[in-house]
Amino acid sequence: PGGARPAAQQNPAAAQQNRPPADLAGSMESLRAALKPEIAKGQIEMSLEKRGLVISLREAAFFSSGDDEVYPGTYASIAKIAGAIAALPSRVRLEGHTDSVPIHNSHFRSNWELSAARSIAMLELLSTRYDIPRARMAIAGYADTIPADTNDTEEGRAHNRRVELVLLSAEAERADSRHAQEQAPAAAGKK
User: Fold this and answer.
1) Which of 9, 12, 24, 124 has the maximum number of C-beta atoms within 10 A of its C-beta?
2) For residue range 53-68, what is the model confidence (pLDDT) as tens digits?
3) What's the rounded Cα separation, in Å, for the pair 158 and 18?
4) Closest Cα to residue 167, out of 138, 131, 128, 129?
């Protein structure tokens, strides 16, 4: 009785796929206006890519060299970004990147650890200070494997040291979901 249920009730995954896509282009323009001073100073770069809206935070503006603590002086800029994240349904991937110069300090054994630690620091800040749900975020540490510029000059290395906040496009979210589903049986078999 009552007829067939709507497809969204039959399949929650279909409901997720059929939700309206986030307006990443509109969000980028409003965020670009809000972050105009930071962009002008070269502290932040933004782009709209197939994977989503990419907000690139330059190391020198947000972190001390070789450290994962976010400068408190940058919280006002991060608050603007957090507002854009909160206003959209998109999942967010926090990606840490370094240059190719091996790290030499007692806190991190490698650029892999540093890049992951910076992603985690940003996740902690967004979740505790700006109430972005942890379930919407994922972290990745890429070390020097995805350079934005050359590692042959200091200027190029400075561009490579960054944390990127990627507000995932609907297509990228689907790809991440498929990848997670493919990996789940493999991980279950290792137990």
Assistant:
1) 24
2) 999 999 999 999 899 9
3) 40
4) 138
| 7-42 burial: b if 16+ Cβ within 10 Å, else e | eeeeeeeeeeeeeeebebeebbeebeebbeebeeee
Alpha carbon distance, N-terminus to C-terminus of the chain: 45
Q: Is the pTM of this model over 0.85?
A: no
Sign, CA torsion 180/185/189/191: positive
Contact 167, 93 (CB under 8 A): no
Instruction: Check if the beta carbon of residue 121 is closer than 8 Å to that of residue 190.
Output: no
pLDDT in tens, 74-117: 999 999 999 999 998 899 999 999 999 999 899 999 999 999 99
User: If you count DSSP H runs as helices and E runs as strands, how many of each does the chain have, helices first?
Assistant: 9, 5
Q: Say if CB 150 and CB 156 are below 8 A apart.
A: yes
How many CB atoms sit inside 10 A of residue 143's CB?
20
3-state secondary structure of 128: helix
